[in-house]
What we know:
Blueprint: H1 3-12, E1 29-36, H2 43-58, E2 63-64, E3 67-75, E4 77-78, E5 83-84, H3 86-98, E6 102-106, H4 111-124, E7 128-130, E8 162-164, H5 169-182, E9 188-193, H6 197-213, E10 216-222, H7 231-238, E11 244-248, H8 255-264, E12 271-273, H9 280-286, H10 288-291, E13 295-300, H11 310-322, H12 330-347, H13 352-360, E14 385-392, E15 395-403
Parallel strand pairs: 1-3, 1-6, 6-7, 7-8, 9-10, 9-11, 11-12, 12-13
Antiparallel strand pairs: 2-3, 4-5, 13-14, 14-15
Helix pairs in contact: 2-12, 3-4, 5-6, 8-9, 12-13
Amino acid sequence: xxxxxxxxxxxxxxxxxxxxSGCGGGGNVLKIASSLPRTGSAQGQTDTIVNGxxxxxxxxxxxxxxxxxxxxxxxxxxxxxxxxxxxKEADNAREATGDKNVMVFIGPYNSGAAKVSMPIxxxxxxxxxSPAATWPGLTKKVPGQEASGEPDIYRKSGKITFCRVCxxxxxxxxxxxxxxxxxxKTKTVYILDxxxxxxAGIAGLFKAECEKLGxxxxxxxxxxxxxxxxxxxxxxxxxLNPDALYFGGTTQSKGPxxxxxxxxxxxxxxxxxxxxxxxEAFITAAGxxxxxxxxxxxxxxxDPSQLTGAGGEFVKKYKEKFKKDPEAYAVYGYEAAxxxxxxxxxxxxxxxxxxxxxxxxxKDFDKGALGKWSFDANGDxxxxxxxxxxxxxxxxxxxxxxxx
Length: 404
């Protein structure tokens, strides 16, 4: 039995069933559709995002405004690719828009996937809340990227339907450079990226800030992610003797292999990776002995271990329910579902347009786990914080939190 069918069967047997897969249901049903890579190495991270969504639904006992809440856990990845697929993401968006009971689309995980689903959902007027897509151009114009037409190309209806509860890369990239400059006294850096929207984008933003701060960029190139290893490249970079290496990319786009090959070739400078690598799968793939004390990972927002108050309570409940620590983006899955469900309480009915407006008008939201925040005019969260962790003893250990 595949994962989706198992979850559907398991859920149908439980009282107050909350997690249903592809189930039409009867009566007065309100559906939350999510679209995330549920196949491949990102599954560990997306499992916890889905768990966060389930916990938010639990808060309401599976019922809201006289309606039964159902969650459709859609996979936008393929086994062949081991990561998100444009066709799957488009299919998920079309299925959601065609189901009159779906009132929100939570996802995607990847910024490149967001470019696919956003126009489809926007045309249908269906609210979209991403817990993890961080490319700034999805919501605002990026300096130097005006020719892309972003973000207007995703808003052909003239309305904003996409918002996100996670901080953006135009904060993550520059604040990483600032940390390296101020805390590590970095003078020179070499930059790599995976040529994807997210990876190349965050690497470019990091590079621009390095140049502002006076950190010398010794080189910047895109890797070919189909290569088995990068030992030749690491040998070349070692000859330049950089103070640090920065990789814009993900676990799925060879982040672990870069760390492995750095060690193999004796390139001993620190490696910095963004939130696309801030997951247990990165440590598992590269091995703790390769990473310990050498690798820094950043994430927008706070590390789960830093959350206090309602956030600390979320982490506690998560551990009790799932018998393990949440990954970094679990709380964003919870927050995305929570801000939507609070809007349903306010609106009191299934109305896509009213719910879209209610969510995007969110101000001083404090019903979730991240403290008090609002959506700005672009649909971005006002919570713009960066946490830098160092991998030690096989774990991500926070060393610094910076505000944007």
